[in-house]
């Protein structure tokens, strides 16, 4: 797969990123080089290579669910600098166009 400027611009638009023309050029070259490396790896014959495994046997790392008392809202709200209607107010970080 060959990476083009049009593809990088399209992906930037989908990701809501604003890229300068220099960034588009740089990312096009870097991604195209990376895809070339992946294509090289795909050409390797791995038919006679045994799959690798973890040295340690897999174990369940999840804890058991247990019901326990949580914090009370009225105790936590004073810690946060901005609240509104009993909820924590945070700055908006994403603006969809």
Which secondary structure elements does this structure contain, and how are they paired or packed?
Layout: H1 5-14, H2 21-42, H3 73-76, E1 83-84, E2 87-88
Describe the structure.
- The chain is mainly alpha-helical.
- It has a domain at 5-42: Histone, subunit A (Orthogonal Bundle), CATH 1.10.20.
- It contains three helices and two strands; from the N terminus they run αααββ.
- The chain has helices at residues 5-14, 21-42, 73-76, and strands at 83-84, 87-88.
- It has a two-stranded antiparallel sheet.
- Helix 1 (5-14) crosses helix 2.
- The longest helix has 22 residues, at 21-42.
Q: Brief overview, please?
A:
With 97 residues, this protein is mostly helical. Helices cover 37% and strands 4% of the residues.
What pattern of helices and strands is seen along the backbone?
HHHEE
- Percentage of residues assigned to helices: 25-40%
**How many strands, what sense, and barrel or not for the largest sheet?**
2 strands, antiparallel
What is the strand arrangement across the widest sheet? 1-2
Shape: flat
CATH T-level topology of the domain at 5-42: Histone, subunit A
- Supply the CATH class of the domain at 5-42: Mainly Alpha
CATH architecture of the domain at 5-42: Orthogonal Bundle
Number of strands: 2
Question: Radius of gyration from the CA trace?
Answer: 25 Å
Task: Give the distance, in angstroms, between the N- and C-terminal Cα atoms.
Answer: 30 Å
Helix/sheet category:
mainly alpha
**Tally of helical runs:** 3
The share of residues in extended strands comes to under 5%
Which segments are poorly predicted (pLDDT under 50) over 5 or more consecutive residues?
none
């Amino acid at each position: 797969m060959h990476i083009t400027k049009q593809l990088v611009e399209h992906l930037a638009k989908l990701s809501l990123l604003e890229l300068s023309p220099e960034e588009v050029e740089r990312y096009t070259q870097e991604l195209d080089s990376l895809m070339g490396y992946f294509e090289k790896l795909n050409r390797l014959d791995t038919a006679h290579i045994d799959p690798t495994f973890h040295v340690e046997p897999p174990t369940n790392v999840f804890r058991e669910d247990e019901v326990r008392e949580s914090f009370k809202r009225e105790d936590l709200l004073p810690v946060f600098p901005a609240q509104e209607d009993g909820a924590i107010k945070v700055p908006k970080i994403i603006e969809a166009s």
